[in-house]
Write a structure and sequence with these properties.
The structure is a homodimer of 336-residue chains. By secondary structure, chain A is an alpha+beta fold. The first copy, chain A, has helices spanning 4-20, 26-32, 39-52, 68-78, 86-97, 102-117, 170-184, 189-195, 208-227, 237-240, 249-256, 258-266, 316-335, and strands at 55-56, 65-66, 120-124, 133-142, 145-152, 157-163, 230-233, 275-278, 289-296, 304-311. The structure holds a DNA duplex (30 and 30 nucleotides).
Chain lengths: 336, 336
DNA sequence: ACTTGGCACTCGGCCGCGTTGAGTGCCAAG
DNA sequence: CTTGGCACTCAACGCGGCCGAGTGCCAAGT
C-alpha cells in the first residue's frame, strides 16, 4: 500500500511543513528532496497518502499538510534520532550542574527544557509515594496545633499543620516524634499510612487511637496533595506558534489546570522511551498540541515525568532528544 | 483649565471605552450620560482634553480613547470605590476559608484574584526577612551532609542542603541543633545571620568558626533565594484582551521573569492603599499593561504584596476593590 | 504497471474601486 | 459659552477582476 517512495514523500511533507509552516506542493518536494521522479508522480503518491488519511489539503489548489495520523507515522517509523549538538550538551550540564537542592533542580530543568525546545516545558516533582521517609519532625505551634514536617530521600520537604483534639505536653510530643520516626523512616510513603496502625503505645495510651487516625489522615492528604506539584516554563513560546493554534486560550487554560498536566505526565513514566502524544490523542484543551514526555529518576526507576507541550507542527526528532537528554541528566542528579 | 464638565466627559470616555473597547464619540456620550449639553459642546471639551493629552484619536474621524495620562487622572480623581457585591464577598470567604497551610493560602488567593478580576493575578509569598524563626531542624543525610529546615511564624518552611568540610557525630549535631534554636528562635530572619556570630562553644570548640561561617552563608542565601517566590494565575485571561495587547509575548515573558514581578510588587507594600501603575509607568515588557497592587499582612504590617496585571483598558474601581479585599482577607488569615 | 508531460480547472489572496457612515472641526447665530 | 449646520476625512466593507500555485486527470511513453 505504502511503498518506500510514498513514505519518502510523507517524510518530505512533514519536514518541509515543520520548517516553513506552509502547505507543501508537489513541485517543492522534487526541488528540495531529490527523489528522482517528476512532480506528477509525487502528485499521484500524495493522492493515495491523502486517501489513507496521512495528509490533507487545507483547501483545493493548496499544497498538503500532515494530519495527526501522518505525524504519528512519521514519529513511529520515519524519524531519525537527532543527536544533540555539543553546545546543547554543554548547556545542559552547565545549567543544571549548579543546582543546590530539589526546588532548584526542578526549576532549572524546566527553564532549560523550555529554552532548548522553544516550547512550553513541564516538570513534575518527584513522586512522594515512591519516595521513602528520611525524617519526620514535629514542631509545637500552640498547645494543640502541631506542624508536621516530612523529609524524603529525594530531598522533598513537605509540611502540614494539624489540629489536635487534645493538648499535648512536651514529653508526649518527644515520644510521638520518636515513635513516628522509628516506624516510618525508610518506608515508602504509600505504605506509611498503613504502617501507622501498629504504632507502639506511649506513656499516654489513651491518646493512641486519636493520634493514629489523625496521622493517617494527614499523611494521606499530604501525599495526595503533594503528588500534584509541577513546574512550568516557556508559556511565552506559545505565542510564537500563533499560526498553529488559532486560539491559545484553551491551551493556556489546560496548562494552568494541574490535574490535566498530571494526567498527561502521569501516564508516561518509563524512563527508557520517549512518549509522544499527537493532537487528538491528548485530553480536551490540548487537542491542537503534541506532548513529548518521558519518566525520570535514578537508574531506570521512575520517580516522575517531564516533557514539553508544543504545536503538532513540531520538530519531533529534536524535541524528543532534548527531552530525553534532560530527563537523563536530572535522573542522574537525583541519584546522588 | 479643566472644569467639572470636562472631567465628566473624561470619566464618560473612560467608562464607556472600558465597557465597549471601542473609541467613544461625542454623540454616544450625550446619549448614555445625561450631561444636559449637546454633542457639539462635548466636542469642544474633547478638543481641549486632547490638547492636554488626556485622550487621543486612533485616527481622524474616529472617537476618542483615554491615554495613560487620562487613566491616571481618572484613577486619582474621578473613580469611586466600587464596593464588592455580597456574592463576591462570600466567594472570597468560602474560597479562602478552607486553606490548610501557607502554600494553600497563597495558591487559593492567586486563583481567586484571577477569577474575580478576570485578569492575571500575582501573589508574593510572605517575606522571610520580616518573619521570625519558629524552629530550626537539622537532619543528617550522610556523614558530612546536613539538611537544614527552617520554620517561620508565618508558616513558611525552607530547606537547604549543606556540605560540611568535616564529619559530624550525632552528639555534636544535637548540640548544634540546640544552640541554633536557642540563638535563633524568635528572631527576625534578617538579623539571624548576625546573631550567629556569638554562638556558644560546644563540646568541639574547634568546629565553631567553620560552623558559624557556614551557617551564616546558608542563612543568607536561603533568605535571599526564598524572598523571591511568587505565585501566578490566570495567564489565560490575557488572551481575552487580545485587542488591547497587539502582542502578548512580551507580557508573558515579563510575567515569567520573577525578578520583574518582584520588583513590581516589592515597591507597593503599604497595606492601606492600593497602588496603580499605568502603562508606561511600568517596567519594560509591561508598558502596555496596568498593575494594581497592595501590601498585605496581619494588622497594618506588610509581609509581602499581591496584585493583578491587566490591560490599561481596565475596570479600575472594580479591580482595586477586589485586590484590596483579598489582601485584607489574606492578611487576617496570616495573623492567626 | 508505473511514470510523465500536458492541460483544464479550482480557489484563496491581492489589488483597486466606489460606497457608506461615524465622527470631527469650524463657523455663524443664539 | 452653547448650539445647530455643514463640509470634510477616513476606516471599514463589499465587489469584481486578476493572478498563480497547485491539483486531478488523461493519454502517451517506457
Amino acid at each position: 500500500m505504502l511503498d518506500d517512495r510514498k513514505l519518502d514523500v510523507l517524510r518530505a511533507i512533514v519536514e518541509d511543513f515543520v520548517r516553513t509552516s506552509e502547505p507543501v506542493g508537489s513541485k517543492h518536494i522534487v526541488e528540495r528532496h531529490h527523489l528522482g521522479v517528476s512532480p506528477a508522480t509525487v502528485r499521484n503518491d500524495m493522492a493515495t497518502l491523502e486517501d489513507e488519511g496521512y495528509i490533507a489539503q487545507p483547501h483545493t489548489s493548496a499544497g498538503r499538510i500532515p494530519t495527526d495520523k501522518g505525524y504519528r507515522l512519521f514519529v513511529d517509523r520515519l524519524s531519525q534520532v537527532k543527536p544533540l549538538s555539543p553546545a546543547e550538551r554543554r548547556a545542559i550540564e552547565s545549567f543544571l550542574g549548579g543546582a543546590v537542592d530539589l526546588d532548584d533542580v526542578v526549576n532549572r530543568s524546566v527553564k532549560l527544557l523550555a529554552q532548548l525546545t522553544r516550547q512550553v516545558a513541564v516538570v513534575q516533582y518527584p513522586s512522594l509515594s515512591r519516595s521513602t521517609v528520611r525524617h519526620v519532625e514535629l514542631v509545637q505551634l500552640t498547645a494543640n496545633r502541631l506542624l508536621l514536617v516530612l523529609i524524603t530521600d529525594t530531598g522533598r520537604v513537605e509540611q502540614r499543620v494539624l489540629e489536635l483534639p487534645v493538648a499535648l505536653d512536651e514529653g508526649s510530643l518527644d515520644e510521638l516524634r520518636g515513635s513516628l520516626n522509628r516506624t516510618l523512616v525508610g518506608r515508602h510513603l504509600d505504605e506509611a499510612a498503613k504502617a501507622l496502625t501498629n504504632l507502639p503505645d506511649g506513656s499516654r495510651p489513651e491518646l493512641r487511637p486519636v493520634m493514629t487516625s489523625l496521622m493517617t489522615v494527614v499523611l494521606e492528604t499530604l501525599v495526595e496533595r503533594a503528588e500534584q506539584r509541577v513546574a512550568l516554563a516557556g508559556a511565552a513560546n506559545l505565542t510564537a506558534h500563533a499560526l498553529d493554534f488559532p486560539v491559545i486560550r484553551p491551551v493556556l487554560e489546560a496548562l494552568e489546570e494541574q490535574v490535566v498536566l498530571l494526567k498527561l505526565l502521569g501516564e508516561a513514566n518509563d524512563p527508557t522511551t520517549v512518549r509522544v502524544r499527537i493532537g487528538d490523542e491528548n485530553p480536551e484543551g490540548l487537542r491542537s498540541t503534541s506532548v513529548v514526555s518521558i519518566g525520570y529518576g535514578p537508574g531506570s526507576d521512575s520517580l516522575a515525568s517531564l516533557g514539553v507541550v508544543g504545536p503538532t507542527r513540531m520538530d519531533y526528532p529534536g524535541t524528543m532528544s532534548a527531552v530525553r537528554a534532560v530527563a537523563r541528566y536530572v535522573g542522574d542528579l537525583l541519584g546522588s
